[in-house]
Amino acid sequence: MVQSRDAPAGWGEGGETALNEATGHDVIVLEHVTKRFGDFFAVHDADFAIPHGEFFAMLGPSGCGKTTTLRMIAGFEVPTSGAIRLEGRDVSRVPPYRRNVNTVFQQYALFPHMNVFDNVAFGPRSRKVPEAEIKTRVGEMLEIVRLEGFAQRMPQQLSGGQQQRIALARALVNFPSALLLDEPLGALDLKLRQAMQIELKRIQREVGIAFVFVTHDQEEALTMSDRIAIMNEGWVEQIGRPEEIYHRPETVFVAGFIGQANLWQTTVDAASGDTADVTLGERRITAAISGRSVRRGDPVTFMVRPERVRVSLDEPGNGHQAVACRVVDLVFQGPVVRFALDAAGAEVVAHVGADEQLPLLRPGDAVWASWERDAALLLSGAAADAGDAPTAVGAET
Fold first, then answer.
1. Phi/psi of residue 264, each to 5°?
2. N or C: which end of the chain has fewer CB within 10 A?
3. Which of 353, 355, 272, 368 is CA-nearest to residue 320?
4. Rounded CA gap, 154 and 115, in Å?
5. pLDDT number for residue 339
6. How far apart are CA 364 and CA 367, in angstroms?
7. Structure letter (DSSP) for residue 367
8. What pLDDT does 6 receive?
9. CATH 2.40.50.100 residue ranges for the chain
10. For domain 15-245, which CATH number applies: 3.40.190.80, 3.40.50.300, 3.40.50.740, 3.40.30.10?
11. What is the pTM assigned to this prediction?
């Protein structure tokens, strides 16, 4: 049976598997790491730490540098400059087989001629671990991934999700300091991928070590991660908890890449402390400033999430901010009705819940779009800098 503590027996027992289990201990540290291929910068000045026991995701579009960063942590790429530390030791130029991390790729690469037990036992056997201990370790790992009765199965007898869990067990059986995962759910169908998101987070909590997860899927990152690093064109744009990333993005790219967002390009009319006034349509609107400070005349992007927008026939009061709109389109999407609205040339998208009491509306009807003051943010930069995710981008006022 797996012991009831942060990790199974073996983690933190000395030798090459030594692990400081103190909460907050940094397992992986990147110190101003840059990776250049010729004249092309794949990663710019990555500088962050990942503590023990954290599920850390690197999220971004294709080509943003997330996989290159993971490969440098694993040892498959060498940084052009900067340092990578594992358990306090500089491993920047240490080969992969001498780093106490394991990597799980999208292709699980199970040995087809070996049964499940032998696949999982391959690592400990390579390290000359006694067979009795191997049997115990493999049993623990198969229990963690909930495949205890599959030890004698061959890989081709397993489903895609089962193969992925065996790949995880094989990576974990050597008690690494951290597990690196390069889009491991990408080959699974949607329902199985969603189920495996929950399973993967459960496994991470049970073994209690750092998981570093690379993905371009926002839902995966938001579902599983303790913290997320958003990357764009080699730069780390923001690191934070999922709710921070979603509700308090620091850049226009992050606002547009995570979820849907209404983004209007405008300019600052007046700024005071951590808020500023802008004009949307014919209305003067106040919002909090996210990221760097702004001054009058600076270009900014106003952001509000569609689910925070309310639609009404009458202008709301009670501290709500509102703009006059006309209905362009509305689509029933099960739990919500998606409204596309026009506010003096700027598109507004609103997700209205089924419990909202609205009369039957049609394209061309005059309505008000409103939101609570704390639902909106002002971001430095142009709305055109938004990420690849669907956005409603308004025209400059």
1. -115, 130
2. N
3. 368
4. 4
5. 94
6. 9
7. E
8. 43
9. 250-394
10. 3.40.50.300
11. 0.83
